[in-house]
């Protein structure tokens, strides 16, 4: 994709573009909501009418297909990581890593401090690893287990987990979304990260205060430790615990901090988890290989323990994988053909000379792409390429745009029920999207700061003449 994405739609009317995008959107959501069909199924079926509608604008079938494959290939590495995260989760449960973290947390965390602690733990984990999904599948999964034992509503816990995980995914230089936002806009990575602190840190402080006050409602004096003690006793009876069980997670964190490729880091943690499970927990090779595919499985006789542990594996990630794959193909056809460009061109042109409209429309395009494409990566690529020339025309530095891409892309993905991120969060944390969306506080608050800054001009860095010439 390039800056000419707006020009690709020069022969496509706004009405036709709105018709095509509206049909795709209504078809996918209609099938999911009215008939309960899987989102990925609807995206695949949408190919039947998306292709001829794109071809009607003057492209051949081969060209239309190549548009879809182009974006699929751009998101392939991130999509493959989805499957690897599934194997890592299964391995870290079988090794005793996740159960040990749960036990340690149950011993030291009180109900009043739990939500704030969850936010901080997941933030640090995500900052260190650069992956929100990996954080949710490890530290987040453990914190949900602790929260269930403490009697904290799972929606609140999941909201704190996702807020912390999204914070790290947004602010970590190791994150794929952070690097993507910087690359799409032509912003130096650390310039992008530093500029994000101006909106993200105030929003994060507010999140921490709110979660702290929310935790105060839980009466520690009325807290019944029975389920906590039963959980600790049950997990201690199933797994052997020592510092060895923490090695797989430590390897993942160290490798990611040292900037190893995410696939290598996650697979290394998976392999070490298998070794610990084999030598320490007595699991057979056949069982471990089965866990990697179908997820960890145990029948402990305790429903809440089985519900906590029986998860992970490649198959648990297939839905998210297929959603990103199918949505990327459809989005590629719409964006590369110029249909998306034609749809947003009037909006983009309306931004001329208006800082607030430029910011507002960038957020709108980002959220819209997140809804259509069901992927936060696409929600950074599409609005980034569309709005980059508009920001330059309005003499706004590219780091303003890269910051907004993270607000609507990285953070906005968790608020859309059919988005791959929200589906993954619901699957891993055992909470419905409706239950945790109200508590994804960072996703709600950070964009508000961007709008306030747009209205006031605070932190909205302008281009000087030399910087304008350097932007390609």
From TrEMBL:
Entry keyword annotation includes Ion transport: no
Every Na+/H+ antiporter NhaC-like C-terminal domain range: 164-458
Coiled-coil stretches: none
Compartment(s) of residence: Cell membrane
TM stretches of this protein: 12-35, 42-61, 81-106, 113-133, 139-162, 198-218, 238-257, 264-282, 314-335, 356-379, 422-455
Organism superkingdom: Bacteria
GO cellular component: plasma membrane
One function term, GO molecular function aspect: antiporter activity
Keywords attached to this entry: Antiport, Cell membrane, Membrane, Transmembrane, Transmembrane helix, Transport
Topology of the protein relative to the lipid bilayer: Multi-pass membrane protein
NCBIfam families found in the cross-reference section: antiport_nhaC
Family: Belongs to the NhaC Na(+)/H(+) (TC 2.A.35) antiporter family.
Protein name per Swiss-Prot or TrEMBL: Transporter, NhaC family
């Amino acid at each position: 994709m390039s800056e000419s994405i707006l020009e690709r739609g020069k022969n496509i009317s706004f009405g036709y573009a709105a018709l095509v995008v509206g049909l795709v959107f209504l078809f996918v959501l209609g099938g999911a909501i009215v008939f309960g069909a899987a989102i990925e199924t609807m995206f695949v079926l949408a190919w039947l009418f998306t292709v001829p509608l794109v071809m009607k604008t003057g492209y051949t079938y081969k060209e239309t297909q190549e548009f879809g494959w182009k974006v699929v290939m751009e998101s392939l590495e991130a999509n493959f990581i989805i499957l690897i995260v599934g194997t890592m989760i299964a391995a870290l449960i079988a090794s005793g890593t996740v159960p040990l973290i749960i036990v340690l947390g149950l011993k030291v965390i009180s109900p009043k401090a739990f939500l704030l602690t969850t936010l901080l733990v997941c933030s640090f984990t995500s900052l260190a690893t650069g992956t929100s999904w990996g954080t949710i599948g490890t530290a987040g999964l453990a914190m949900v287990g602790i929260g269930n034992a403490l009697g904290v509503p799972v929606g609140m816990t999941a909201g704190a987990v996702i807020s912390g995980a999204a914070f790290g995914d947004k602010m970590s230089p190791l994150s794929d979304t952070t690097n993507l936002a910087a690359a799409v806009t032509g912003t130096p990575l650390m310039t992008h990260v530093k500029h994000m602190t101006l909106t993200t840190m105030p929003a994060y402080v507010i999140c921490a205060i709110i979660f702290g006050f929310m935790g105060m409602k839980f009466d520690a004096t009325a807290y019944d430790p029975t389920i906590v003690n039963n959980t600790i006793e049950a997990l201690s009876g199933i797994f052997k615990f020592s510092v060895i069980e923490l090695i797989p997670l430590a390897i993942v964190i160290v490798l990611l901090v040292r900037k190893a490729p995410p696939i290598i880091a996650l697979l290394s943690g998976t392999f070490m988890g298998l070794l610990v499970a084999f030598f320490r927990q007595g699991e057979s090779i056949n069982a471990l290989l089965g866990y990697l595919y179908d997820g960890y499985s145990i029948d402990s006789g305790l429903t809440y323990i089985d519900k906590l542990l029986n998860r992970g594996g490649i198959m648990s990630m297939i839905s998210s994988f297929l959603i990103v794959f199918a949505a990327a193909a459809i989005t590629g056809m719409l964006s590369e053909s110029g249909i998306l460009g034609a749809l947003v061109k009037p909006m983009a042109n309306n931004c001329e000379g208006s800082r607030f409209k430029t910011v507002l429309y960038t957020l709108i395009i980002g959220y819209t792409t997140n809804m259509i494409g069901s992927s936060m990566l696409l929600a950074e690529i599409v609005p980034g390429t569309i709005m980059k020339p508009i920001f330059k025309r309005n003499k706004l530095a590219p780091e303003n745009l890269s910051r907004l891409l993270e607000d609507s892309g990285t953070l906005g993905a968790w608020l859309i029920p059919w988005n791959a991120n929200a589906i993954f969060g619901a699957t891993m944390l055992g909470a419905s999207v409706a239950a945790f969306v109200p508590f994804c506080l960072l996703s709600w608050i950070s964009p508000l700061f961007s709008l306030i800054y747009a209205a006031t001009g605070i932190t909205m860095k302008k281009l000087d003449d030399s910087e304008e010439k350097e932007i390609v």
